[in-house]
Design goal:
six-stranded mixed sheet, alpha/beta, globular, about 180 residues, single chain, Rossmann fold
């Protein structure tokens, strides 16, 4: 690889970092209405724990509310009339669980190094309440590999930790877009 190619490569990396940092597409919005999360139908049929999408949605709601990421955060599952709003500076967020693997405790214990890790992936779409136009789509995956736990962690621990990590990552990305 020549010096010219290296310079172009470095420029492209820096340009993408600055472009990502400049994306403040959620900054004009003061209110967020969070819809109940859904689950990809294939996951719902196969392996996703029943009602766990609601736990994820409520966890994200609580974090956004407690950390004051938006001036107002409303949970549409608690106030269904909130979705009728057409107010300006209001976002409606919908989330979908698109991937889930419960992990394998034995692999976490015996192999470690990330083998048998539990994981969950969520896509959250933000739409302008007034126009219905998509403003931003975020995707994040959280996982739990059981590092530091000689027993590999229980299935509940794996599910809880991977969910916490996916919510932490989403909140970080939402903050970056504010």
């Amino acid at each position: 690889m020549g010096v010219k190619n290296i310079a172009i490569f470095v420029f492209l990396i820096l340009a993408s970092l600055f472009a990502a940092a400049a994306d403040k597409s959620l900054s004009p919005y003061h209110t967020l209405i969070l819809q109940p999360f859904t689950v990809d139908p294939e996951l719902a049929k196969a392996k996703f724990p029943p009602d766990y999408e609601n736990v994820l949605e409520r966890t994200l709601f609580a974090r956004l509310l407690s950390e004051r990421v938006f001036e107002t955060v409303t949970d549409a599952s608690l106030d269904p009339n909130a979705l009728q709003t057409k107010a300006s500076a209001t976002l409606i967020a919908s989330g979908e669980v698109v991937d889930y693997y419960k992990g394998n405790r034995a692999a976490r214990v015996i192999i470690n190094y990330g083998a048998g890790a539990a994981r969950i992936k969520i896509v959250v779409t933000f739409r302008d309440a007034e126009t219905g136009k998509e403003v931003l789509r975020l995707e994040h995956e959280g996982s739990y590999a059981g590092f530091g736990n000689i027993t590999g962690g229980s299935a509940e621990k794996a599910r809880t930790e991977s969910a916490r990590k996916v919510v932490d990552g989403l909140v970080k990305k939402i903050r970056a877009a504010r």
